[in-house]
Amino acid sequence: MSYASLSVKDLNSLLSRSGSGSSSSPRTPGQTRPVKVIPLQHPDTSDDARPPSIPFDDIFSRWTAKIKRMSLLDWVDTLFPCFRWIRTYRGNEYFKLDLMAGVTVGVMLVPQAMSYAKLAGLPPIYGLYSSFVPIFVYAIFGSSRQLAIGPVALVSLLVSNALGDIADSSEELHIELAILLALLVGILECIMGLLRLGWLIRFISHSVISGFTSASAIVIGLSQVKYFLGYSIARSSKIVPLVESIIAGADKFQWPPFLMGSLILVILQVMKHVGKAKKELQFLRAAAPLTGIVLGTTIAKVFHPPSISLVGEIPQGLPTFSFPRSFDHAKTLLPTSALITGVAILESVGIAKALAAKNRYELDSNSELFGLGVANILGSLFSAYPATGSFSRSAVNNESEAKTGLSGLITGIIIGCSLLFLTPVFKYIPQCALAAIVISAVSGLVDYDEAIFLWRVDKRDFTLWAITSTTTLFFGIEIGVLVGVGFSLAFVIHESANPHIAVLGRLPGTTVYRNVKQYPEAYTYNGIVIVRIDSPIYFANISYIKDRLREYEVAVDKYTTRGPEVERISFVILEMSPVTHIDSSAVEALKELYQEYKARDIQLAISNPNKDVHMTIARSGMVELVGKEWYFVRVHDAVQVCLTYVQSSNSEEQKEPSFLRRFGNNGSSNNSSYSDIQPGNTLLKEALLSGEK
């Protein structure tokens, strides 16, 4: 068994000989106190040793072992997550709560679904279709017990923007493409869920999502203003054409739809605010959309104002089975499908995980994504356009104390009853009432509080927020997303390629070493530089790390120092405990750096590499190159040994200018060097033992 650091026995021998070498210097307890050095065992790199594992092999092995352990009940729970809550359902306790939550969300969803369908450029009935079958399917295959799925404003805007360039909203092709889009989104969600690829979306910063959502909410609100003004405006996802068309048609302004829409919008906002502020009145929040619809329909039915446009005839009955058509445009719709899938991961899965944590049950993100995918695939077979989790309806569902997926089934039943019995009444709904519901819903998506928070906390994240929101507003949704994601990835790459590196110093009275910039009281040792690398080391950042190490070597020491006075740096200690991975390119670069140091009589020492990093270094031959005695468990161990050599070099300076030729790993035995320590000098022992006092 070989060890990285010098054995305790050797160090004790060193101090004993140092203390007893002169009769005029009597031995003191401080001079003979043993120095504690923890030995580090090097990994076995022989051919008989187990080869390094391949990450994909490890993943496959874990999956295989997990599958072998799964019982029939586990398989049922995996394929049909609804059985998890069905087995533990408490009818007397849960049914009343689920019933009230399901009815509340259903009452909220009926008008919202029709409003979002209009936003997507579809007839209102398709919003109800998208709220019917997907809800029942998700209740079976979805993992969340509180997530309310269906049409949402952001996805509806994406659908409208993607299909607007292909077909006019009045054409049948527009509807067929929206249904096809639901199928494509469902397939992508299922693939990502099965392959467990949901982690890819983590590279998109939250500030990017917030900026994109805020800008999209403004665009959505402006696109609905036409129902308030009483005249048509340009269909666009950019703010400039929308504003220009609003100004250009100002001479066509009509007061009746503006007054009705404004009145309904004010009522919606007041009810939503009161419902949020007072828990006992939270039902007002859910009832607000229905109240707006009832009020608008009553006014339209009684007074028949000619300048207020109505929804018109809506087909009665449940959706029929039909397979999506128009696959000729599938390739064109793939980018939008990927974008909607990303929104599903970021919003739906994020909301579902938060609700699961709040209600104390486990939820697998990939299983949840698969459940959303199945809901969209089967929904597309019944004339639904893409559905995903709604933040507002999920919040209402949770606040109504929904306990299981039964609340979703009840919501679906309400949508079904609406399709069967209420569609004749829907034809009197004013368009401005539906627009008011959309504007009220998206007003909360303009996250200016987040922008203020980012400005105060992190200017870089605020820059991301500003760039994403600005490009989305002025250049469109697709450009905004691409630019935001691009800048987000650029920041990630920059942070990875330029990792944080700290010079460490010893905290007084301890053996703890910390960043000297964070702890100004920490002191360093003359001739020794201790550097901590706070990231994995790989081909993209090794050049930056080498440059920083060279800077530390020649930089003027501005910190409090201890130990013997020396003229230059003789040791560089790398603290590698934060380094989780090192690749072959980085190892080769470290070898080159070691050779550079060796040519200038500077010894490299490495402290506390983890198991994988240590194995990589050992297999590369770097342990033998640097010397096993220069690998340590603790920084303090490395400092003790380096101080020994610095002291010896200082004492023997006149006899041997290059002490590394005597004490390096390529020189003579280390034990022969210990006896050369001058006996009368206690500075080394004081430096070594100061941390023990």
TrEMBL record:
Name assigned to this protein: STAS domain-containing protein
Region entry Disordered, spans: 14-52
Entry annotated with the keyword Repeat: no
TM region positions: 94-114, 120-141, 148-167, 173-195, 207-233, 253-271, 283-303, 333-356, 368-385, 405-426, 433-453, 473-493
GO cellular component: membrane
Gene3D superfamilies per the UniProt record, alphabetical: STAS domain (3.30.750.24)
Membrane as UniProt keyword: yes
Biased composition (Low complexity): 14-34
Species annotation: Brassica oleracea var. oleracea
PROSITE patterns linked to this entry: SLC26A (PS01130), STAS (PS50801)
One Pfam match: STAS
Major localization class: membrane
Domain STAS positions: 518-642
Cell compartments where the protein resides: Membrane
Gene Ontology terms, MF aspect: secondary active sulfate transmembrane transporter activity; symporter activity
Record membrane topology: Multi-pass membrane protein
Top-level taxon in the UniProt lineage: Eukaryota
Entry keyword set: Membrane, Sulfate transport, Symport, Transmembrane, Transmembrane helix, Transport
Stored SUPFAM superfamilies: SpoIIaa-like (SSF52091)
